[in-house]
Amino acid sequence: MATLPISLDPSRRTSLSAQIYSAVRSAIEAGQLASGARLPSWSDLAAQLGVSRGTVRAAYERLIDEQFAIGLGAAGTRVAQRPPLAATPSCSPEAPPLPDLFDEFGAAPAAFQMGVPSQDAFPYKLWSRIQARSARRAAAAPVGYPDPRGEPDLRREIAAYLGVARGLRCNPSQVFVTAGFSGALNLAIRGLRVEGMEAWMEDPGFPLTRTALALAGMSVKAIPVDADGLDVDEGIRQAGGAALAVVTPGQQAPLGMTMALARRIALLAWARRNDAWIIEDDYLSELQLKGRAAPALASLDQHGRVLHIGSFSKTISPALRLGFLVVPLEMARHFGDISACLAPAPGACTQLAVTEFMRDGHYLRHLRRMKALYAARREALVRCLKELASDSIKVQATGGMAVVTAIAGSAPDVDIASRARRYGLAPAPLSPWYVHPCKQQGLLLGVTNVNEGTLSADCHRLLELVREPN
């Protein structure tokens, strides 16, 4: 017969029977009471604990009801057969996902951090007022299911913006509001039914996208890029029968070149010939820091082969978790069904705020200010790096909102980036963006949160880290 070392506290708000129940259940779940073990009788346990038989009976009946024990009448009460205890996982289930891509969720942006807009230049007061109004409107809205494709007004604003800024003619029925870029990519993969097939992806390319395609069971073919963008001929040689190509034609991530018109036409022709699809990741939208941004690849698509993804992460804030997917018109109904069943748009409050921000002209004005600010900060960073006149770290390219640097130190770029976090710096290592072995180690230095007052000291610290032995 099992022994039960149970301690009761009459001063607790929890009843004595509930305390007995919790103690026995915990012992069963921890494996201290094996399946089939006989529990003490009501009388024996009541005498041991100094409580009434009815108190023990109530605890046992609850254990039986919840299938932790079995009542066998005169044969007593025994522990029910339980599945074996699961092995303790090697890492905590509470550990954040993708630690190689994301350092610390929710932290303020650090110097050189990529993928986040300026922390100090966003119009927070204006945005706070807009959000407060949007929260009131959302709270007063009818209690019903919202459109899973997204708020109709926001979809209209996005469609109008894309026509003006990205040369993409579409109507609101083609626009689906999503939970950021990841939500749009998930919706596109599901809607195209390409799970398990081959996909092209740029090399180098965004590691999160590569991981997402692999999680969808896709075989990812790393296609090199050059000064004209994705090498379409090489893609055809490697995997001409692929079902999908994921590209960043506006500003290649992370190197920053714009895909040449001839390459765009060749990519579209390949997709049409092979009944393949193209996902256009327009991750920086119109944030071209020099000159005017090239039109979206989808603006050239005459045969419905391109799905266009954008988000507000780089232009407003990644905390919004708000993106959008534009699909060919003939696929709008199909994607509407999928969004309703599997991937509905995020909550209305944020959508309403972004709608007002766009409708009243604040969004375009904000983008104009940020383009000028980021261009000045990028110029300051490049100038500072060149003034160091070091053989250890050199500017290789100015891609998008980052400066691509080559490093000559003995330490790998991943190690340098890790050590930089101790000093409040957050450069991104270049090598994880490649699938094929990278001849040159490098660091990606975001320009959006560069502080010109501390820039020189930050660059000197970074140079010291590159020179330090591993």
Question: If you had to describe this structure to a student in words, what would you say it looks like?
Answer:
By secondary structure, this protein is α/β, with parallel strands linked by helices. Helix content is 38%, strand content 14%. It contains 14 helices and 14 strands. The strands form 3 sheets. Strands 3-10-9-8-7-4-5-6 form an 8-stranded mixed beta sheet, with helices on both faces. The chain has a 4-stranded antiparallel beta sheet with strand order 11-12-14-13, covered by helices on one side. The longest helix has 27 residues, at 362-388. The radius of gyration is 29 Å and the shape is globular. The termini are far apart. The mean pLDDT is 91.
Question: Strand share of the residues?
Answer: 5-15%
Q: Tally of extended strands? A: 14
Number of helices: 14
Task: Provide the helix percentage.
Answer: 25-40%
Order of helices and strands: HHHEEHHEHEHEEHEHEEEHHHEEHEEH
Main sheet summary:
8 strands, mixed
Low-confidence stretches: none
Basic shape? globular
Name the strands of the widest sheet in spatial order.
3-10-9-8-7-4-5-6
Mean pLDDT: 91
- Measured on Cα atoms, how large is the radius of gyration? 29 Å
**Helix/strand class:** alpha/beta
Q: Give the termini separation.
A: 60 Å
